[in-house]
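Good day; I would like, with your permission, to put a structural problem before you. A protein sequence and the structure tokens that stand for its backbone fold form the material at issue. The record follows directly beneath this note:
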Amino acid sequence: MTGTVFASFVAVVAQLPSPLESVAESVMQLTPVGLSDVLLLHLLAVSRFLALLGAFSLVLLAGGLIGAVFRIWGDRLPGRLMGSVTAFGVLAVAGTRLAIPLSATEVVMASVFVAALFFLARPQPPDRARRDFLVRTLTVCGGAATLLALLALRPLTSAITVRRLLPYKSPSGLAVAGLSELVTPSDRFYIMDKVLEYPLIGGTGWRLTVDGAVERPLSLDTQRLLAWPRHSAYVTLECVDNPVGGPLMGNALWTGVPVAALLHAAGAKGNTVLFHAADDYAEPTPVDVLVRSGALVAYAMNGETLSRAHGYPARLVLPGIYGFKSVKWLTRLEVVHGPAAGHWAEFGWTPIAVIHTSTRIDVARRNGNYLLLAGVAFAGSRGIQAVEVRANGGPWRRASLGPATSCDSWVQWAIQLHGPGQARVEARAIDGDGAVQPEKRHGAYPDGSTGWATVVA
């Protein structure tokens, strides 16, 4: 336990990956999809701390097992063998896998962990008092509590200062109290990631490469990327984990360089691009989808540089496709021939990821015999043609739609129904192709949730 605390304190000070973060991310990967969806949706504010707490519990268990081995067989096994077993166990606890080469930071942290473990496992004088043992234990526990707090708050301490790149004024939408804004403020835009620690990428030293099956490989630093002709577009992103009526969706103005322009400049020959991130995440997308959708390598959000949580210094924004394909912290666009396997496809998630039509009820407020209802509707790049609402299984009535920022963004809607007493209200959308949102509900796995939004008011 002390080895973990010591190694993680070094990680916090030196801005290196902590063993606890690696363990927590591995646990998140192994958690059943249904359970992880529920936990992430309902524990967004404290999910990071709970993941670290769970990882610390696992490290305690691993440390106890190693201690038991030392205690029972330490005198019987050669010291070199015990050192090898301990080092192997430490590397496993640090979240490494034998199939993946160790990074320099993982080697450093594992070495610190091993050194601390052997230092603490050295022979102690036989007359060590129980009181000294208790003092040491309480000190370590206090240090562990402080460590968990530091790790939980590390995203705040490692945040970058966003700066304004271009003038921006958010357009006005429907004036209904409680209704989601037409454009989501950057600090309220949803965040859903597989990592606990965002990659610590600075403005200098970062490069975006475009290579693979290309005639002219590109390598762009931040200044060269900013010098390209920029394009801005309003695009709504939605997490594939978003349940019916859920909050994991937001609309923003994204600014960057069209992926098609980068591929053209590089002379791309393949039909698929594999987008690589600084956190070793990778997702493929066919070139024709990237060109048709107007995908961007975005470096600004609502006129400001991206925050670290939203992918600084550059991320993919892929309209009409669920958010896990819009890779953050981009480092490389690898052009390949034929299909390529993505990270989440290995876990059974859809490789296509086209967004389903959805409706959300944000407001259900009574005023006497009238019921005010308002919300947002989204159908990816198909746009929204209409939103219909009914009460207690009665006739469908069309809501008033607010202005649309683009065909790739959500629209606001509002309607007032007349009728006394409590009512069960259902809402559905009709997309730009005229297709009615399906009633049948199913969960997010494996290709996004479906079903009408409902509320009792």
In short: The domain at 186-347 is CATH 3.90.420.10 (Sulfite Oxidase; Chain A, domain 2). Confidence is low (pLDDT under 50) at residues 92-106.
